[in-house]
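Follow-up to my post from last week.
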Amino acid sequence: MILARLVPAGVVGLILFFLAFPIVVVTVVSFSEATYLTFPPPAFGFRWYETYFSNPDWLNPTWVSLWVAAAVVVLATFLGTLAALGIARLPKAMRIFATGLILSPLIVPGIVVAIGIYYAYSHYGLVGTPIAMVLAHTCLAVPFVVTSVTASLSGIDPRLEQASLSLGATPGATFWQVTLPLIRPGVLVGALFAFITSFDELIVALFISGTGAVTLPRRMWDDLRFQIDPTIAAVSTLTIVLTVTLMGAAHLLRKRSQA
Amino acid sequence: MSEIAQPSPIAVPLGAVRPLLLNWRRHVPLLLVAPLLIYMLVLYALPVLAMLLRSLNDPTWTLSHYTALFEDVVFAKTFWITINTSVTVTLGCLVLGYPVAMGLVRAKAMAPLILIVILLPFWTSVLVRSYAWMVLLGRHGLVNEGLIAIGMIDRPLRILNTPLATQIAMIHILLPYMILPIANALRQIDPSLIRAASGLGATPFMTFRQIILPLSMSGVAAGTLLTFVLALGFYITPAMVGGPRDITLSMLIAQEVDQLNWPYAATLSAVLLATALAILAAARHLPGVGNAFRMSMR
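User reply:
Got it. Predicted complex:
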């Protein structure tokens, strides 16, 4: 085929190597037995995982991150799904305003969002609380829920809802028994995105997590300022496994619901 | 008046109830969206606007914070570094991303594997990927050790904490945002066009130049725009792997907030935001751009 002659497989292979290699190196280094960063490791073992799992300085931020992300999932999925159900039927001017506001966290530079939130939240004494992290991360997670649910809503055959209504089902019954089951994959994908958005988020956390709500990315950042020991490689590998599993699930869900 | 216009007896009671019901129904969409709109206004949009306002009303209403930027050497240098980094990174992503997109679209049995290699780093956090580049590019990192081992250099090169490190890591992080829209556009090209071109005697290069490239421009535009706008706001990566003196606009903003210099931080934020929005506004009529931000979903 013609494309094959234009782009040698070797070139594509090299670029793919560039993409994958850093992730592979972090994973391999995390199983090193050496006390310093070296590659390839002289011996393999789990000592950095043991350090991580026995150190409250690492475990506490992990729990904070998991709890914050779980709360963000609930809040963002609820608010985002409701909004997605209504947004397409808003009057035009209203719809443009709502879409712009809801999707804007994807475009507004992270630092601008972070210091704006820090500026306002510190006035209300929220800085350093897990609640502030949940409130802020929900704003960042909501665009993913709304786009995901909107996409699955647009794939629904409107005749299904019309049939339900004309057969005498109330709008409420139609929603619970027809619409919701049809958009469930979209809602689930949105929830997964919301979880990862919060779990991985660092810039807002740098400003508002204070000392009372240190999340895992914030703890990693603080650690990197002073040292690069392989514990971070172990933590990184664990977060890679978690996020890749969830994103993979979201990817498969989305593909299946489109098929 | 015709017979049809006469209200039928049964329509009278219904008509009395209907307007109320209809009114309520008409507001259902707004009632569904309102909780989220209020939430985002109170907890995100108004906080950001209140912060930005500090660039205009400190100590009284004034534009002096903005006019001062014209003589501000630090700002000029930082702005230049930010634009320069974003352009370099976007070009790097384009050069590396286009061949991969073609490889992805052309591959048959290998396609799922290639997609996994593209998505695996895409699904890994920016912090972890920046850390990976610290491990690779450090003084005793893999790149230096490898180059010494094969005899290319005698002493470790200083790569980490230079602009080059920032560019390499940012290209790595943003590459999928370029590959996916281009692959999307390439996938929509009718293969019979390519067969026709070569059947009519076009060389592979002519087919690429006159058919594939023009038809993939919507993907190129979307990918370029997305990459550039995201690159403008990068903070974590340049702060971690970049040079201590090569600070970007985002880093300067963070520094000013640390020193509680809110009017200056707000002014810089407004400039950064306005730059990003101006580029989006200028490009909004390009084909494919509307979809670009839907694709920014990781």
